Amino acid sequence: MFVDLNSATADVMESLTEISTTETEKTLQGNKCMQKLMSLEFIHSLTVTGVKCCRHSSFVSSDRIWISDIWNHPILTDSTGVPLHRVEDSCSGSYGGLHTANSENELIYIDRNYNINKLSKDMKTTNTFIERTDSTWRPWCVYWSPSTGDLLLAMHDYRTGKVTRYNQCGQLTQTIQHDNTGLELYSVPHYITENMNGDVVVSDSSAVVVTEREGRHHFSYTGHPSGSGLRPRGICTDALSHILVCDGRTKTVQMIDRDGQFLSHLLTELQEIGEPGSLSYDVNTHRLWVGSLDNNTLCVYRYITRQDALTDEHTPRPDGEAMSTSTSAI
Asked: What confidence tens digit (pLDDT) does each residue in 50-104 have?
């Protein structure tokens, strides 16, 4: 089954023509995006037993994925939706991405006391990796970085938010909280991930906030150029450094490039899943796992081939100015 994305073509081309580059660069970028976004292949769907919806997911392997719903108790499920394990001591007050999986297939999650725990691959041993010592700040979402092995935490204190980085020993190495002018970057960060270039990508209350690896503010994406606004939910990045985000306002999955320019509505509200809420990307098979906020359905798609990803690794990336829907760093 193929989902035709021809309706998104106008969005793609309109956004590309607004990029301040040379005419040659516009043509190259337009052709490249059209090749990638013409069709979205539906692979399969599964019904996840034991959850009401799929608020957040952490990809483990082609036949294993962690899912959590509004009660935030992560369930490990196989490719048919059969539950294999359930975590009972996870945080129940978090809205979004309270768990992540590392290269050892260990689950890292926020527990009910806002500590960061690590569940072993065999699911027999749970250890506290980072103990909460500051009662002011609560960790709200977590992401393990495949490139560095670091752990990224987004926190908030019911007034503002911040991102902290911990090394593999659990030591704090970085805090990201303000832009170059001293203004606060985050309000309530719900989900966090990392792009292939090392950028830290946060799904905040009304924007996707992106900072460079060193902490400098790159841009804040606030929605489609039409001005519809944004209520960001689940977020991920792909092998071409696109940023994908579920939007609660339009009930779509939006694709933007690494510099904050809108490219396409990759998915609109579908009968199978209703409103999309969670996203996970498999870098090995280039499959996108999309979870529903309306039910316990998880759909798997593919829109990038292995050849696309390999070709892109050797393609120069022209720099373009951000569009009006993305606020660049000063």
From this structure: 999 999 999 999 899 999 988 778 999 998 999 999 999 998 766 689 999 999 9
pLDDT tens, position by position, 262-299: 999 999 877 678 899 999 999 999 999 999 999 999 99
Contact 82, 64 (CB under 8 A): no
Q: Locate tokens 């490990």: which residue?
A: 76
Share of the chain above pLDDT 90, in %: 72
Three-state helix/strand/coil letters over the chain: CEEECHHHHHHHHHHHHCCCCCHHHHHHHHHHHHHHHCEEEEEEEEECCCCCCCCEEEEEECCEEEEECCCCCCEEEECCCCEEEECCCECCCCCCCCEEECCCCCEEEEECCCCEEEECCCCCCEEEEECCCCCCCEEEEEEECCCCCCEEEEEECCCCEEEEEECCCCCEEEEECECCCCCECCCCCCEEEECCCCCEEEECCCCEEEECCCCCEEEEECCCCCCCCCCEEEEEECCCCCEEEEECCCCEEEEECCCCCEEEEEECCECCCECEEEEEEECCCCEEEEEECCCCEEEEEECCCHHHHHHHHCCCCCCCCCCCCEEECC
CA atoms within 13 A on the CB side of 23: 0
Burial class (CB in 10 A: 0-12, 13-18, 19+), 196: middle
Give bridge partners of residue 61 from the DSSP assignment: 64
